[in-house]
């Protein structure tokens, strides 16, 4: 079902943003626009495209007024690993600019993309929900600034009639994913599929990208009505596929779909992997070359991390459209038919 909203997807050229745009069009929404720093031009003719900087409030305001936007879906963010100052500029200053422009333009709804990692500090977490507080120290600047942006978005709820919500996806993968899916394929080509960090007993919540897009559209639909009476307004929601897998099982499922089964598996225990990560980081610092194994990657690959998404089920009516197996199949098909032609 389509809605009466006019959507502006900020960061709509990115992995998640593009999936949201495509799903909006598939569901019959006729008023869909994209605002991004760079665009590839390969959008459906129904999509209005605005090229601009999220830090420039005037550019944002112009796009909002021209498109008649009633609902903003904000997905823009530097990728993890980008220089720290860019996270502060885009995730914090940029989010403030979006809110200011939205209020001035009379936008009704604003949905922000955060991350489930904002409540993850490297220690095992199992079945936790949105009531879990932020850690005293975040794992990196990406999650620190995402947490700050969350607070800014929640605090903006009701300001100037604006209704806001925050979604925290966990481990997104799928077609268009030149990060994880491409990385798995590259490991096949590099002959590095036999090494496993940790014992793979740790359950991890992943999220197929079309399920993520669906959650954003549900949030937009549920934000209708007066802000004072809306149970979704000002709320934060963790979104997963509701089917945690042992961490390395996703990579192995993708490898199998690509016709590759590792001949053996060499398990590197977590303490040993952490030591290797420390040495690799030091060597990378000396040589100026990026480390293949880092303590951050070891922590991410070895920690238990799955969530209780009852809140999203109850208030948003969220239920994954695709299972993990279906998501893997669609991801593999995309890589074979399209992704591999672009490369890594």
Key structural traits:
alpha/beta, 344 residues, Rossmann fold, 16% strand, 11 helices, two-stranded parallel sheet
Walkthrough of the structure:
It is a single chain. With 344 residues, the protein is α/β, with parallel strands linked by helices. It has a domain at 7-177 and 203-245 and 306-323: NAD(P)-binding Rossmann-like Domain (Rossmann fold), CATH 3.40.50.720. The protein has eleven helices and 15 strands. It has helices at residues 15-26, 57-67, 84-105, 141-156, 180-189, 209-222, 247-257, 270-287, 295-302, 310-316, 324-342; strands at 7-10, 32-36, 47-51, 71-74, 109-113, 125-128, 163-169, 172-173, 195-197, 203-204, 207-208, 235-239, 245-246, 266-268, 305-307. Strands 3-2-1-4-5-7-12 form a seven-stranded parallel sheet, with helices on both faces. It has a two-stranded parallel sheet with strand order 6-15. Helix 3 (84-105) links the parallel strand 4 (71-74) and strand 5 (109-113). The protein is globular. The two termini are 36 Å apart. Belongs to the 3-beta-HSD family. Keywords: Oxidoreductase. Residues 8-269 form the 3-beta hydroxysteroid dehydrogenase/isomerase domain.
């Amino acid at each position: 079902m389509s809605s009466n909203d006019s959507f502006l997807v900020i960061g709509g050229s990115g992995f998640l943003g593009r999936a949201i745009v495509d799903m909006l069009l598939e569901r019959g929404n006729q008023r869909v626009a994209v605002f991004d720093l760079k665009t590839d031009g390969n959008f459906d003719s129904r999509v209005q495209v605005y090229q601009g900087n999220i830090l420039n409030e005037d550019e944002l305001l112009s796009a909002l007024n021209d498109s008649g936007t009633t609902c903003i879906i904000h997905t823009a963010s530097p990728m993890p690993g980008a220089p720290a100052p860019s996270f502060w500029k885009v995730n914090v200053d940029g989010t403030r600019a979006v809110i200011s422009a939205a209020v001035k333009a009379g936008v009704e709804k604003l949905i922000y993309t955060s991350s489930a990692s904002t409540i993850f500090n490297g220690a095992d977490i199992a079945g936790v929900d949105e009531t879990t507080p932020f850690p005293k120290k975040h794992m990196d600047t990406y999650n620190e600034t995402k947490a700050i942006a969350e607070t800014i978005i929640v605090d903006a709820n009701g300001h100037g009639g604006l209704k806001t919500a925050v979604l925290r996806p966990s481990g997104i993968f799928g077609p268009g994913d030149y990060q994880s899916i491409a990385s798995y394929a590259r490991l096949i080509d590099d002959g590095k599929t036999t090494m496993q960090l940790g014992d793979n007993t740790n359950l991890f919540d992943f999220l197929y990208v079309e399920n993520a897009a669906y959650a954003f559209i549900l949030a937009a639909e549920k934000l209708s009505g007066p802000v004072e009476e809306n149970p979704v307004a000002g709320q934060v929601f963790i979104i997963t596929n509701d089917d945690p897998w042992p961490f390395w099982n996703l990579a192995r499922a993708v490898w199998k779909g690509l016709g590759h089964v590792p001949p053996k598996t060499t398990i590197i225990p977590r303490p040993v992997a952490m030591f290797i990560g420390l040495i690799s980081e030091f060597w990378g610092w000396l040589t100026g070359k990026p480390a293949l194994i880092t303590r951050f990657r070891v922590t991410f690959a070895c920690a238990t991390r799955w969530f209780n998404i009852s809140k999203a089920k109850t208030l948003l009516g969220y239920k994954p459209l695709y299972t993990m197996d279906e998501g893997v199949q669609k991801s593999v098909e995309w890589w074979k038919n399209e992704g591999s032609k672009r490369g890594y």
